[in-house]
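HUMAN:
Sorry, I am quite new to this. Are you able to go through these amino acid letters and fold codes? The numbers rather puzzle me.
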Amino acid sequence: MKLYIISGLGADFTVLNKLKFNPNLQIIFINWLIPELNETFENYVFRMAEPITAEEDFYLLGYSFGGILVQEIHKIKPAKKVVILGSIKTDGEKSLVMKAGKISRIPKILPLKFYSGVSVDSFAFIRKFFDSKNSNILTYFKVRDPYYLKWSIQQILDWKMEKLPEVIQILADKDLVFPLKNSQPDYIIKGGTHLFPLTKYKEVSAILGEVFK
């Protein structure tokens, strides 16, 4: 059985590389694509889904923004099982920060150069938001194309979705990106931040071992 995995916004798979999977699974990572100019989210999802062979059964796993992507892929190429880590099932589960960002339109108005490079201030914000104890946090964010970052953030803010009951959701109780209080996940990782697949990999691996048999 193939398990297709998509990581978080701008992240490579370093944040997921401690996870252990059933040795019978064929693990396939789907790398982020740079969106085309003014590309629709629907078209982007189709392009991200191209590596998936839908003629045979497969699983999907997505982390953070990748969790949103795999749910959209599931609608066009249904998976046998779908698991999302540190992500949301519906737009109603978004944080107040995200809802405010959509209403204010600030992320959309900001010039592209704002998304270029990483300042001391932005590093401090990212570290506090994702995991205040992790000084190496920026090493997990390898895709830093400014258009990709701005476009992706806007897609998250605009995303609308009705809950798919078959999707299995795993959240951490100290996640500030997608707060636990807004969701009713199938599994809760105690003491985990948004980087829980890296910091709580043993607990997550045990759950994934039960789900992806």
Observations:
- The CA atoms of residues 64 and 87 lie 4 Å apart.
- The mean pLDDT is 86.
